[in-house]
Amino acid sequence: MQPGLAASRKIVNVALLSCVDQNMAKLRKEDLQTPVSIWREKDMINGEKVDAFVIILRTTGCWWAHKKGCTMCGYNTVSAPVTEEDLRVQLAKALEKYANEKMVKIYTSGSFLDDHEIPSAVRKDIFTMFSAAARILFESRPEFVTAENLASIEPARSAVAIGLESANEEILRRCIRKGFTVSDYEQAAKLLNEYRIPLRTYLLLKPPYLTEKAALEDALASVQYAAQFSESVSVNPVNVQRNTLVESLWTKGNYAPPMIWTLIEVLKAGSGKAECRLLSSPSGGGAARGVHNCGQCDKKLLSAIEKFSYSQDPSEFAGLECECQHEWKALLELQDLMFTGVDVKRQATENIIE
Ligand code: SF4
Ligand SMILES: [Zn+2]
């Protein structure tokens, strides 16, 4: 076990999976034919800030989530047994709202390149439907990044995001339960590099069972590793999602999301690696379930992170100070001394009953 990996490991998994399956049975036809969500945001293509149109399609979901699932992932609560026709209706509805944004991001809460989620014929049609998009970004687990599947997309207009989470094999297996290895990722990354398809690698900041310091070191080592294959690396701090193993640990005070100071440290120390853009757009930032600080400085720090994600200039973080920085520094030392990744503050101040 890595130093900093906490000893206790209580796996409560079966109940979570059956909860997902019950959710699938409840959805009506109308839900099956409506995208989970659509919104607009900014992103970057070749150093240029562009408008991005984001669609979350409802699909059968990630096969791994149905089998065991990653410890922090609750995405399958939006999955359902959709047909190809359902998917086409969802896409037609999305297209009605599309305003020719330069970038389109299509998320499936799983793998776009998995035929069970998006049949190859639908993938091909998506490139025709969004013909105004210079880039279509989608997510995939590495096992679906194959020459055969890449034949169903337009490489010159594609970008692929892979959730590597950590470049440490042991953390990937024991803490995240990712269901693939670092070398699986590397094989997929090299194939994408060969096809000149830009790769965005997602890293998970503070998987369960790690101390704050071990999480910081793991993220930094992972940035260093992933940058060599990636056009961009997105550092995603854990957001405690419902019906996940992480949530069950968090509820009992055995897990705390990272502090914003840790995220800033990763971005500062990790910036300037190769030609790779380093970014973070934390979901749940500032909330109890997401990356947060004392509540007084969160907004200011999150805004600096957003600016850095475009400018890549570490001076965005210059002059940021708060009382809670002392607490953060103490946390980095204390958890390692105690050899525990539990929420030390909550365990000390609340009467938590297991
Ligand atoms: S691979 Fe992705 S979608 Fe599948 S369980 Fe893991 S985090 Fe969730
Ligand atoms: Zn603060």
Summarize the helices and strands and which ones pair or pack:
Blueprint: H1 14-26, H2 29-32, E1 37-45, E2 48-56, H3 63-67, H4 84-97, E3 103-107, H5 120-129, E4 135-139, H6 147-150, E5 158-165, H7 169-176, H8 182-194, E6 199-205, H9 212-227, E7 232-237, H10 245-251, H11 260-270, E8 277-279, H12 298-311, H13 324-338, H14 344-349
Parallel strand pairs: 2-3, 3-4, 4-5, 5-6, 6-7, 7-8
Antiparallel strand pairs: 1-2
Helix pairs in contact: 9-11, 11-12
- Mean pLDDT figure: 91
> What are the segments in which pLDDT stays under 50 over at least 5 consecutive residues?
1-20
Shape: globular
Q: How many helices does DSSP assign? A: 14
Name of the CATH class? Alpha Beta
Tally of domains = 1
The helix fraction, in percent, is: 25-40%
Strand content: 5-15%
The CATH homologous superfamily:
Aldolase class I
Order of helices and strands: HHEEHHEHEHEHHEHEHHEHHH
Q: What is the topology, as strand order, of the major beta sheet? A: 1-2-3-4-5-6-7-8
Number of extended strands: 8
**CA-CA gap between termini:** 25 Å
What small molecules does this complex bind?
A: iron/sulfur cluster, zinc ion
CATH topology: TIM Barrel
Structural class: alpha/beta
Largest sheet data? 8 strands, mixed
Supply the CATH architecture. Alpha-Beta Barrel
Please give the radius of gyration in angstroms: 20 Å
